C-alpha cells in the first residue's frame, strides 16, 4: 500500500516556467483561427478559470481544440529545450519520492513525460494526467482519489493558478497555492487556499510537517 499522503502537482508555473511558451503557442493558434490574439497579461488571466472554458469564451470551438493539440505537438521538441525548471523543484520531488506523486496538468502528457525524464524527475512520478486524460482537473483529481482509495484530506494539490485552487477545493483536497508561477500572491489569497507559499524553499521547509499531519 502506498504511503500517505499523496501529492498532486500542476506542471506549468509550478514545476517549470512555461508562460512565455504558452503565450507564443496561443499567439500562433489564435492568428491561424483569425481570432484576436491575447497578450501576455490576458493569457495569464485566462487561467483564473479552467483554461478550456477560457479559450471557448474567446471564440475557440470544440473542433478547434484538435488543431491546438496538433500545434502543441509540433512545437514540443523545440519548446522543451527552452523551458526552465524552477529552482529547488527537483529537490522537492526527490524529497517526496516515498509518496505517490502525480502531475495533474492541462498540458500534453507526452510533452511533460519527455521533459520530466530529460530533467531527471520522471522516476519520482507515479503518473501524469495531462490534457489527453480529461479537460477538467476536478475529474482528474477525483479519479486519482478513487484509484488510490484515499480521503481527500490525505491529498495535497500544489498549483499556481486561481482556477486550479477553485477546482481543487471542489474535490475536498488540501490546496497549496504557490506564488512563483502564473498568478500573484494577492490573486491567490482571494481563493483562500489551505496553504500559500512565496518560494519553493518555503514549501520544502514545511513539507515534512505537512506529511506528518496526513500520515
TrEMBL record:
Example GO biological process: DNA repair
Gene Ontology molecular function terms on file: phosphoglycolate phosphatase activity
Protein's recorded name: HAD family hydrolase
Provenance organism: Candidatus Kerfeldbacteria bacterium CG_4_10_14_0_8_um_filter_42_10
A single cellular component GO annotation: cytosol
Pfam families reported for this sequence: HAD_2
